Every structure is written in C-alpha cells, then in structure tokens.
Amino acid sequence: MNSLFSKFEGVFDPSSREVELLSRIDPTKLPRHIAVIMDGNGRWAKQRNLPRVAGHRAGISSVRTIVETAARLSIPVLTLYAFSAENWKRPRDEVNTLMALLKEYLRKELSTIHQNDIRFKAIGRIDELPSSVQKELKFAEEETRNNRGTRMVVALNYSGRLELVDAVNHLLKNRTRYPISEEDIENSLYTGGLPEPDLLIRTSGEMRVSNFLLWQIAYAEIYVTEVLWPDFRGIHLLEAVLEFQRRERRYGGIRSPSFQSTR
Ligand code: FPP
Prior knowledge:
- The chain is built from nine helices and six strands; from the N terminus they run H-H-E-H-H-E-H-E-H-E-H-H-E-E-H.
- The chain is of the alpha/beta class.
- Helix 7 packs across helix 8 (about 180-190).
- Farnesyl diphosphate binds near residues 43, 56 and 63.
C-alpha cells in the first residue's frame, strides 16, 4: 500500500484498474508540473453527430475530473490549454460558447476548487479577453490566492511565441542588467516562479506542441494518447503518470554508470 490510497478513499472501487494503477505509482517521483493540451472535443462531437460546442461542454467534465485527480495526487502544478491566441479564428458562435463555458465553469466550480485548497491562475494575454471573462478570472485568482495545494493554471488567449515576445518586452522595459540570463527570461514568463512541466499530455493523438509553453517544455516528457479530451478521465491521468515514471530522464547527459549494461 502506498500513501496515495488514502487520498482516493471512496473514489475508486478497490478492485478497479485505477486502484491497480495507483498501487504502481511511486508517490516520491510524481511530476511537479503536468501540462495538458486538451484536444479532440470537435471530433468527439462529430462522432456523435452533435455540434462542436457539445464536445467543449463535455470537455468540462474532463476538466473537473482531472483537476480533482491532480489535487488528490498532490501534483503541485496543473496547466490546461483552454484557448489559444489562434482560436479566435474559429466561428464566432464557437468562441462565444467557449468563453461562456469558462465563466460557467468558474461560477459553478470555484467553491469546490477553493475547498480543495487549489490556487487558480490564468495565463496568456488576459487583457484581450472579454471584460466579463477577465472579471471571473480575477475573482477566482483573488478568492484562491492563499491556497497552498495544487496550482491550477488555465492558458487563455495563449501563444508560446507571444509569451516570449511579452517576456522580452518586459525585460527591455524593466531591465537593469545586460546581458540577460535564462533565469531573467524564465522569471519574465507568465509562468514565472512555477516549476517547468515534467510531463506534457496531449489528447486525441496529434503529435504537435501547438505553440504551448515553448520555453517551459524544453525537457518535458511528452505523452500522447488517442483518447479524445471529453473521454479523458482519472484512469488516463494515472496511466500518463505511470508512463512518465517509466521514462529515463537524462537532460542531455548519459545514463548513470551504475545502471549501464555490463555486456
Ligand atoms: C480542442 O478541441 C479544445 C479546445 C480548443 C477548447 C478546450 C476547452 C474546454 C475543454 C472548455 C473550457 C476549459 C476550462 C479550463 C474550463 P478541438 O475543438 O480543437 O477538437 P478537434 O481537434 O477534434 O476539432
């Protein structure tokens, strides 16, 4: 039995695959930051002859479950890619529905987020979002600012390249020393002060990073699953974490000699 079981008491059936997966997860080697590209909502809806927005609505249940599972696992940071700076190109109705769903999610879930000691943060060019969305985001950040559990980060109107542009402009405007260092850039990113992602999950099988956290994922382990986002549940997150723990991370170095084959 590992210490994770107590956090999931009553959540999973004792004979379930989730509990079996939990028993294999090493609680001392959990990722400090999991970033997720939530993809496949449109395809999920298409498979059911539903409008695309039905896929986004269904995707909210996955958000709820994954936030809860990450919090139970005590993952320090969970970042969800909810709306890219390129997503404005989608039909107006779809964009409006996504904004409405985000507000609805925050209104309905904020008390649960708060009760679970989760601290909320929005990243991206937030000042370009509709003012009603900005208001909800600010409120959620304020309400949860003293929480010490999982940091839930939602990327909105986000672009990895624009984040770097914003960081460089910030440095040019406030710079006190030359030359700038990696640390200066890191601290000027929207994610300044947060650990970089150890694990990047992408749903729906696409092998792309789609302009997400370009600087921060330099050493992240990438996990792509065929599961469409609205079908993604706790079991899938546990599978991703287990796969992460199976990988050998070398950061450009070599394997430790004690593990090298003697053949
Ligand atoms: C990608 O699927 C998904 C999105 C662009 C939006 C994700 C947003 C949510 C799940 C809801 C709001 C989020 C929060 C955090 C409350 P797609 O439409 O590109 O799917 P497709 O590739 O199958 O067309």
